[in-house]
């Protein structure tokens, strides 16, 4: 017996996407499999690592901790939506590049979305506030020093 | 892993949600999902149906008066944490909420959902128990109020019936002369605490709540105990449990240290 599919529309990075998904399709999987937006990475898949963080109506949210069928009324922003309209890097992306805030890049999309929203709420964070901002995201490469530096740099670039 | 298949409904009214829940004995309510979705993903739970209440109107309200703070089932931890009226009415809410997971989880997770999920390692069940709050539940059979003292049956088990939805929780206000404190120790920032302690110190009584110590949130009355003796006095009423994160002896030590710390905070 095939699984029931739900016809839904996801609004991602300003565009509507009509998809048919089983109820159990995680938002993270829907973004990657159904929409081809593979910038959202799946790490632990139970809410710990933060790699899949997207913005739901502007608020950082774990895409692996909700179902696509629950995201129908939300404006979703993924890492693909963080670049400038002309395709150049957004301020947080530019700051990560400038400060060497990434190595392997696996965790980076989750950091970029989290920091983008964090700077909306607190445009001029102290070093401690910058650390708190990224406290829910894991990076196994950098040791976080350059990520914290990138938060402060992004605040200058915005 | 991925969740097992389930049927899914997203009702537009509370009545509709209650009807669906009443008609499907193996259905489960989905609010913020920050505890439920990992359980589904790891296949520790596999309900036949999820009733997503996120589209039910009017459940996201916070209302404060002189008696206390009432929050609807869809109030996210982050919204309650930000609410100035709620923080003024009962300061323990903000103190404890800042320890609930990470900001990203708090953006989606609901306080009422966390309470009825009844995890003994969670902050807000212990806060509700300490303050003597309550939860209002609804079903097709009607409404009732469950006092916090009657809410927590065991690990991850509340006394809600299967067909009931927790529509709101109520936290009593801080009364004149009362002080509060909160502290916890976790292995990692934002992770579940190995031990957490909340205190409510009034002119007549000193009560302390423990999370992650026993299988349900536990309240101990420490009225009149000398400051040097509070840790041992609390342990006389507690049976700290060992798990993969901490031995019973280590938990006991955390009880000693944190009890003293929160009572100093609330002095």
TrEMBL record, chain A:
Pfam family, any one: Fer2_2
Highest taxon of source: Bacteria
Pathway note: Alkaloid degradation; nicotine degradation
Entry keyword set: 2Fe-2S, Iron, Iron-sulfur, Metal-binding, Oxidoreductase
Domain 2Fe-2S ferredoxin-type: 6-82
One Gene Ontology MF term: metal ion binding
Name recorded for this polypeptide: (2Fe-2S)-binding protein
Organism: Nocardioides mangrovicus
The organism's taxonomic lineage, starting at the top: Bacteria, Bacillati, Actinomycetota, Actinomycetes, Propionibacteriales
UniProtKB/TrEMBL annotation, chain B:
Pfam family, one: FAD_binding_5
PROSITE patterns documented for this protein: FAD_PCMH (PS51387)
Keyword terms, alphabetized: FAD, Flavoprotein, Oxidoreductase
Gene3D superfamilies: 3.30.465.10, CO dehydrogenase flavoprotein, C-terminal domain (3.30.390.50), Uridine Diphospho-n-acetylenolpyruvylglucosamine Reductase, domain 2 (3.30.43.10)
Annotated protein name in UniProt: Xanthine dehydrogenase family protein subunit M
Domain FAD-binding PCMH-type: 1-176
The species this protein was found in: Nocardioides mangrovicus
Keyword Oxidoreductase: yes
Signal peptide from the UniProt entry: none
Gene Ontology molecular function terms on file: FAD binding; oxidoreductase activity
């Amino acid at each position: 017996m095939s699984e029931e599919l739900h016809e839904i529309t996801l609004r991602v990075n300003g565009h509507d996407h009509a998809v048919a998904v089983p109820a159990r399709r995680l938002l993270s999987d829907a973004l990657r499999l159904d929409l081809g937006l593979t910038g959202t990475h799946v790490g632990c898949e139970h809410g710990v690592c933060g790699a899949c963080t997207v913005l739901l109506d502007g608020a950082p949210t774990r895409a692996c901790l909700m179902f696509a069928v629950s995201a129908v009324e939300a404006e979703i922003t993924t890492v693909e939506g963080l670049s400038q309209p002309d395709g150049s890097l957004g301020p947080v992306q530019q700051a990560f590049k400038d400060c060497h805030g990434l190595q392997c890049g696996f965790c980076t999309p989750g950091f970029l979305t989290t920091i983008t929203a964090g700077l909306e709420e607190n445009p001029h964070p102290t070093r401690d506030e910058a650390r708190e901002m990224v406290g829910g995201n894991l990076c196994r490469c950098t040791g976080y020093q350059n990520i914290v530096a990138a938060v402060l740099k992004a605040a200058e670039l915005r | 892993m991925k969740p097992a298949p389930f049927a899914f409904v997203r009702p537009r009214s509370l009545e509709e949600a209650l009807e669906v829940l009443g008609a499907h004995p193996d259905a489960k309510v989905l609010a913020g999902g920050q505890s439920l979705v990992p359980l589904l993903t790891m296949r520790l739970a596999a309900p036949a149906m999820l009733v997503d209440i996120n589209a039910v109107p009017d459940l996201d309200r916070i209302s404060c008066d002189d008696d206390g703070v009432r929050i609807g089932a869809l109030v996210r931890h982050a919204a309650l944490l930000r609410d100035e009226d709620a923080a003024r009415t009962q300061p323990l809410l903000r103190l404890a909420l800042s320890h609930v997971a990470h900001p990203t989880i708090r953006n989606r997770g609901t306080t009422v959902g966390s309470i009825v999920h009844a995890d003994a390692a969670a902050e807000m069940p212990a806060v509700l128990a300490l303050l003597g709050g309550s939860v209002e539940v609804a079903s097709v059979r009607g409404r009732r109020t469950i006092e916090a003292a009657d809410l927590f049956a065991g690990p991850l088990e509340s006394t809600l019936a299967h067909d009931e939805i927790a529509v709101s929780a109520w936290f009593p206000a801080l009364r004149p002369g009362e002080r509060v404190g909160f502290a916890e120790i976790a292995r990692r920032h934002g992770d579940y605490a190995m031990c957490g302690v909340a205190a409510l110190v009034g002119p007549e009584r000193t009560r302390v709540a423990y999370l992650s110590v026993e299988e349900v949130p536990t309240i101990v009355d420490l009225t009149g105990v000398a400051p040097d003796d509070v840790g041992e006095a609390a342990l006389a009423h507690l049976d700290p449990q060992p798990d993969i994160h901490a031995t019973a002896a280590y938990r006991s030590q955390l009880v000693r240290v944190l009890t003293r710390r929160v009572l100093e905070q609330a002095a």
